[in-house]
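Quick question about two entries, pasted in order.
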Amino acid sequence: MSFPDVFAHFFSSSRSLSMPYSQAIALMAALALGSAAAAPLATGNSAGTNAGTSITNIADAVFDDPAGGATALTSTSNTVVTKVNAITGFDIIYSDGSTDDVASTNAPANYSKTNILPGATVYSSYRVVNNSNIDNYVINISAYGNLGGPSVKYYLDADQNGAPDDLNSPITSVTLTNGGYKDIVQAMTVPSIASANNQYYASPMGYAPTMVINGIGFAPYSEPSNQNTPGTAATNMDLQPTTARIYVPGAQLGPNGYPAGDGTGTYADPSTPTTSISRQGDQQTATVQAGTTSVTFIDTIKNTGTLTDSYALLDRPSGVVVTTPSGASITSTPTVENGITYVTDSGGTPTIKNVPAGGTANYRVTFSYATGTTQVGFTVGIDALSAPNGVLEDTTFHMILVPKVLFGDKTNTGPDATLNPNPSGAPGATTTLSMQVKNTGGSSDTYSFTSTQVAFQVVDTNGNITTQNVPVTYAADTNCNGTTDASETLPLTLAANTTGCVIATVAVPSNAIKGQTPVFTQTLTGASTITAQDSNDTVNVTLTFSPTPSNKGVLVAKFTAKAGVTANSETESNTGLTNPANYTLSQTTSLPGSNVSYRIVAKNVYNTSVTKFYLKDTVPANTTLQSYTLTKNNVLVALTDTIFSVDNGTTWTAVPNGASVNPSAASGTTYLVAVDTDHNNVPDALGPNQTLQLDFVVKIN
């Protein structure tokens, strides 16, 4: 059979028998060996006539007929019989002509098989030759080696193609003609759990049992009895081993595109593109954004071995989901992408199959983590199916860094968002809050700061109160020493588990009213998109008043009515208040029986309201009170909203309905007059920058 015919026969046989791929490879190698063997092989060396052959002999005596007859006479002897004795001897030899009687680990090149996969069957060719004179010599064949009996079988190979004639018909003996031979194939199946680089061997060992042929008996003969060199006994039992060294897989597993574990650079999470994954050596690190609860990494396998191989993904923690490069699920139904097969084995382990020698294959690993996680790391390992011994060929490491942060007012123990320092500030000054940040996440993060505006109550010069919103500004204080140093800038970058500060500054309006502002909300935003808030801070505006000549918070001046005087043409030196129109600070004259009108002007220059505010005047001697009225912020106060007291505030009385004065109008009577819009007989407050004036009219007696 030609060499192409041999391969055709191989493929036909392997298909019909569903031969494993690893066995097919070994068989192909055996076929190549058989076709390449060119050395002439022994066909058996007959020791002579077949043992048991009967050699008979009859002797004749021939003489002249003594009676004178013309024909000579013959006398025949008895028959004697000689049977040919047996000479035992056989040999099993390598089919390529290599010398046998070699050590178990020293098989010749064609019988030293390497890169054998666990569970594969190694085929090797032998010839059994009859060196005896025994016809139909029965040679029993058994295996000698470090594999169990069932793992080694023998088959006839009549067509000498190096392949079994019939895989369904193993043999345990051959019967040889005198000087004849038979070709056989040894099929050696290595364990399916064989460890890489282990070496197995097997040699056919012949044994001819005691037999009797045509009455001639002979002793048993075994393979170790041979003397290939006459007179020299076999030193290695005259064996002819085939060795099978288990394939040593080579594989690397590393970050996306870097199976050798020399990763650099970054790539985006294929499932969450906002997550950046960095590669450094044999580690991938995902820095996730706030709110993210899973990361998908890409790993790369490289087959650095010499055979196509497959890999089981092991050493995976609970929660890791393995998918194909496109993100498809890996199930018991094979999925093929880029020529690589992805499937789970019977135990549910993801397996990457048919990675060619020197080739690479990718897969995804997705890990989901709990919301409160700060960081988590895990490994994934591969076990080559060419040596499925549970020993990992390589591993690679994955790290997830989850952002977490604390933000609040600075304390000695860390940020406290429940604290409200309520810093005080005078109108026109600035006030600050030291805000503290602690990066409790797993990676460095960069923070910026914003705030709602601070709502101050302000008063204008006319006493009108409105709200003024003031922005909060921020400055870096990385070392939390209370000041911004030259090297400290915003945004604020903090490594994992470190603390820094920012200084929040609020400018208090110059006309701000005393008191605590409403709360304002400060917000931290990380580059990771994490946010945190402190929503209960306030600013306290301190009590103050505008500088005046009297340096008092409530100013009071008294003027006398005088026609023709221009408003604001005169200034009272002690308070800085100016005169109303038709009133003067100067001396006036009046006749008995005429009225004198006084105007008392009071202004609150505190930055807060003055409670229980009233004006006070006494009826001068030699006069009688005629009337009094109040004007607040240039608006006349209704008599029904006016109260008075003549006992120095012990008792307050509402002005009688329709009356303008109290019956006690005599000189020397002191009047306290106040606004009481809520009619509770308690003087109302006077707001900041508001004025209250009392027009007090008396008649000269």
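Here is the second entry:
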Amino acid sequence: MPQYNGIGYWDRLTAPVTIERDTLGSVTVRAQDRLDLARALGYVHAQERFFEMDLMRRRAAGELSELFGLATVAADRKARKFRMRARAATILQKLPSKQRQLLNAYRDGVNRGLNKLSIRPFAYLLTRTHPAIWQSEDSLLVILAMYFTLNDSSIYRELALSTMHATLPKTAYQFLTATGGSWDAPLIGTALDWPQPPSADKLNIHTLDPALLQNHFTYNDHMPGSNSFAVSGELTDGAALVANDMHLELCVPNLWFRTRLIYPKQHHAKAVHDISGVSLPGVPIIIAGSNRHIAWSFTNSYGDFADWVRVKLHPEDSSRYRNKAEWKPIKTYHEVLQIRNAPDETLIIHETEWGPILATDHDKTPLALAWTALHPDAVNLTLAELEQTETANAAIMIAQNAGIPAQNFIVGDREGSIIWTIAGRIPIRTNNYDPRLPADWSMPNTGWNGWLDATQYPLIHNPASHRLWSANARTVTGSMLTLLGDGGYDLGARAKQIRDDLYARDYFTPMDMLAIQLDHRALFLTRWKQLLEETLDQSANTNQFHDIKQSLEDWNGLASTTSVAYYIVHAFRQEVIQRVLDGFAAAVRQNSPGFKLPQLNQAEHAVWILIKQHPPHLLPPGYRHWEDLLQACIAQVAKRMRAQPGGVSAQNWGKYNAAHIQHPLSPALPAPISNWLNMPADPLPGDNNMPRVQTPSFGASQRSAVEPGNEEYGYFDMPGGQSGHPLSPYYGGGHTNWITGKPTPFLPGPAEKVLQLHPS
């Protein structure tokens, strides 16, 4: 168990440090300088979360198989091709000395905390392995792991887009992959017009061989993202009010760690820095939170920060490739995968000046990946400077130079200002190539030319509306959008509902922000319900869907756990989108067998146009007309529901949308132990495409709102709890409040346990 009370001694400390925990295990660390604070935070993180920290560094480095053997070899093969451990070591040497000192102090604290446990963390007992010591570059690997989490889907999506672009007529490709449409709610500009469908002379899906369809294709809505929104002091009692709920895969314990850091200000005798929010175990800083002067938040930006480069090999020597000036040798690296209970495996990795060669294009041309995460200056601890920042204007400069995956960044200060920009590096692209498709960077002036200067970043400062919002959808237009690119923006329905909720009030308190975060009105599905009812009314056999019609009567316009109607409408939409999109995928499969569509977050626009216009040439093969397809979708939904115990009337949304929040090891353990480690299977209100994003294992990894300077009146909830030790009183602590939407105070409560660390 972690050490929660008492007094400890450590010669690395320069002054006493106090570590307090409240009833939820929220940690407050008090120290006399920032390095001692980092040592103490590392100590706490290691004792509570070392296994989870270990998984993150190993995931980025491709070293999971050292713990888990053959089960994780495929994941390691994919990750090791990036050689992230070697890159992290290079990054470490290039960091400013103060940041290296911070990482080294944190490293010492982690290893001290690990060594002070009387027995190694329980996960290593279960796996019969031993933890490896923490190194300074491991903290950089944790940041790189977040690059994988937030960018991975966008990167590999572009490979499928290239195949679509090469196979489909131009009008069909544009129809499926446009950047936005009527659901847009950008901060700047208006909604975009969606392109019209391709004509019959360009594409005829209906005449395709039905064998090209894949009936097991699943359309998936959810994506790593988040909600963030803020109002200026004009709409509060004076300070800005910032809300944030970051959407990620949920687990036990939670990704984040509730943390408060308190240490003296330099040159101010009695003043202190007081920062509260969430830290990320493995990294010695507060990621998002408030410091009595500013409050800041993040959402995944879904700009395009990775490009595939077509590698032109020498016609007589495939070990050389062409850059802009000459033929260069391809660098070759040998990476050894150490696999528990199995022989080592050596990977041969080929790299260009742009990045590693990881794939081939539709015409078999090798592709190298240029990605911000692969550049030495794309990872740093600059974000730590927000701890001591006192204005929103100053925070913007820090965010724009932060070495993190590019994020929407919303900040507000106690004087009432609110600002939106992008945090993280933005590459400068030259020669106007389409960044969503592979390009030949051996051509003159094609590729990346350094990083965008901070003065050129998209920025919105104190808008006239006094409101800002961000929900992974397109935020800007015109030249700003060109700078950011399109990495797979979300549909915009969620952002639109948040925007409209913000405009529905002229005065805000933290509880008003919570009401928006918990908004699970099914505005987005209203038209799908109407379409479903119209299709049922047109059915020739009125008795065929009697149970479906009857269950639709409980529709209350909410994604509520007791609603059978919501489940039916949700399932109907999924079924329609899957079948319609599979028709386009079948057209690609004529030339590319086995092709699978990438995540098309804007596909709602395309599908809705088709089911309203009913173009016969774009109807998937096997259906007589569009009404036939819609009725087949209803029949499939009804069949699945009738096959479940209790039939249609017993299949409410809560049964489908029950929490499935697991400990990383639980899938491999017997049911009694697994159930003990996991959170309860509580039914969850909410869904994608509404502010309250909640699916069984994906949703708000935290939920907060705070006014800088008035932190006592803010709230903070998160699932899964603080501690990674199942016998800890803090295992799952606070999870019930997250489930029920009950606000927990933003600041930690009174100290329940106190640990004091003194210099030897």
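Reply: The chain has a mean pLDDT of 96. The two ends are 23 Å apart (CA to CA). Hope that helps.
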